[in-house]
Design brief:
510 residues; alpha/beta; Aminopeptidase; Glucose Oxidase, domain 1; ten-stranded mixed β-sheet; eight-stranded mixed β-sheet; globular
Length: 510
């Protein structure tokens, strides 16, 4: 049983593809993508039958490729998820001052503990961008006490439009992410976070799917973040600053100009927060994990991770979102790399972990769970190579037009996301690419409009100081639509990226 449901029929479906005889590489890649993105798998949304079939298929292919189970005798690392459906009419954000109360409509709510209703009233502290960066000499929490209070934060980071900013110029640092801001507030003793896009910005707000507007669809039952986060519209910020003598824009401009915090308690302001999940039920999801043990007695305790997520978006309005590029392409490459190690009969010095993540589309929940409960020590994990959306040609989508340049011909190009955070790994990939011949592009490390750094499973590893790199083919018009189908994959390009992933993993492991 998986997630409490019988899978005998599902295993028959998986077996239909799992027992195919040896094939040329392009045919194997195509067969894997076509199976994973087939209508019968219903878009592989987490906690649904299609995701279960995909997980079983991956485990079967691991076994055939000679990978050992990484979790004792099992290829599965289970984690518990709570489906999130906010109780209608129970979500509230109230501002209380001098006997009056004003309500603000939140854009979204993150429940740190999905099993417990949020009901709290507390004083408020404005803590700037919510960043503590000792290596940059910057700390929004310096000199303020947020214990038992709610913190109001700007999204992103200071000087975002300044190419000379200490915060990675016009790109992002890890401090810009909502996960970090919530974790930092939590470790300073805050009860909750209220987050708003900073009022002075040139970036575009991230696109939200309609069914994601109120809350993430799922949450980890036992995640590292335990406090709630309410996201509000930027225009609502003025309600909190009305008695400070300055507008939100003026406070942000002062931070941008001086790079000194302006954090302060919002005297006389108390905030009321309420939200509740409709159910306290939970279900199991899985990461699928196999490994090759290293051959060097001194190095085999060290790990190289090759990862890709297998879930997608399911069915909406009767239409399947097949997710052929996102991310059947990455899983196909992951499986093919495992087969190449088996065919070459290579056991490098370091161990290699093959990690198929569940629940990436709902906020990288599988990878966040893994870094909190690693099956191999993170302290000796030398590199993570993440494969996601590697089989199509990059083209502009509505969000990206005017934000950055896309090459005229991307048929032979792959993006390296987070290269600036993992320069040694990026340099190694570039070296191995000499024999592959792809054009490598690191543009997403220099732009902030698409929040690309925060959109995939490499991110949780970076937060744990593990070098991690995302090989990413770029956005395209079929992204997160029913048009992301197997017939649109460029299989020769997918094979080249697969070859680069194999050579890079082998080089790190050696």
């Amino acid at each position: 049983m998986i997630c409490g449901r019988p899978i005998s029929i599902l295993l028959v479906l998986a077996a239909q593809i799992a027992v195919v005889p040896a094939q040329p590489v392009l045919e194997r890649l195509r067969a894997d993508v076509e199976f994973l993105s087939a209508p019968a798998l219903g878009g592989r949304v987490s906690l649904d039958r299609g995701a279960e079939v995909a997980a079983q298929f991956i485990a079967a292919e691991y076994r055939k490729a000679g990978l050992r189970p990484a979790n004792g005798s099992s290829y599965f690392q289970d984690f518990r998820l709570a489906p999130i459906h906010l109780v209608p009419g129970k979500t509230r954000l109230g501002i209380r001052r001098q006997g009056s109360e004003q309500n603000v409509n939140p854009v979204s709510v993150f429940l740190g503990d999905p099993s417990r209703p949020v009901r709290l009233e507390a004083p408020m502290v404005f803590a700037g961008f919510g960043i503590t960066a000792p290596e940059l000499g910057y700390d929004d929490y310096a000199g303020i006490d947020v214990q038992g209070k709610v913190v109001l934060l700007f999204d992103h980071e200071p000087q975002e439009s300044d190419p000379k900013s200490i915060f990675n110029g016009t790109g992002f640092t890890l401090y810009a992410g909502a996960w970090y801001k919530t974790w930092n507030a939590q470790r300073h003793g805050a009860l909750a976070v209220i987050l708003a896009t900073e009022p002075v910005n040139r970036h575009r707000p991230p696109r939200r799917e309609p069914d994601q507007a109120n809350a993430p669809a799922q949450a980890l039952v036992d995640g590292e973040l335990r406090i709630p986060r309410f996201t509000i519209p930027t225009e609502s910020l003025a309600e909190f600053f009305s008695e400070t003598g300055k507008s939100p824009s003026e406070w942000q401009s002062e931070i941008d100009r001086t790079l000194r915090p302006v954090s302060r308690e919002l005297t006389g302001v108390r905030v009321l927060l309420e939200a509740e999940n409709q159910s306290d039920v939970s279900a199991l999801a899985q990461n699928v994990v196999g490994w090759i043990e290293g051959s060097d007695p001194a190095l085999k305790a060290e790990t190289v991770v090759l990862g890709a997520h297998y879930d997608h978006l399911g069915i909406h309005n009767g239409r399947v979102y097949p997710g052929a590029n996102d991310n059947a392409s990455g899983i196909a490459a992951l499986l093919e790399v495992a087969r190449r190690f088996q065919e070459a009969q290579i056991r490098p010095g370091r161990s290699i972990l093959f990690l198929a993540f569940g629940v990436e589309e709902e906020g990288m929940l599988g990878s966040f769970f893994y870094v909190a409960h690693p099956l191999r020590p993170l302290a000796t994990t030398r590199a993570v190579l993440n494969l996601d959306m590697i089989g199509r040609h990059e083209e502009h989508i509505d969000e990206s037009r005017g934000a950055y340049e896309v090459s005229d011909d991307t048929s032979n190009e792959i993006n390296l996301v987070a290269a600036s955070f993992s320069p040694a790994v990026a340099a190694l990939v570039a070296r191995e690419n000499r024999s592959v011949g792809l054009r490598l592009n690191d543009k997403f490390d220099r732009e902030s409009s698409m929040r690309t750094l925060f959109r995939c499973d490499h991110l949780p590893f970076l937060y744990k100081n593990v070098p991690a790199l995302w090989l990413f083919g770029g956005f395209h018009p079929g992204y997160h639509t029913p048009a992301d189908t197997a017939d649109k994959i460029d299989y020769p390009k997918l094979e080249k990226v697969t070859r680069l992933a194999y050579l890079s993993a082998l080089a790190v492991a050696r």
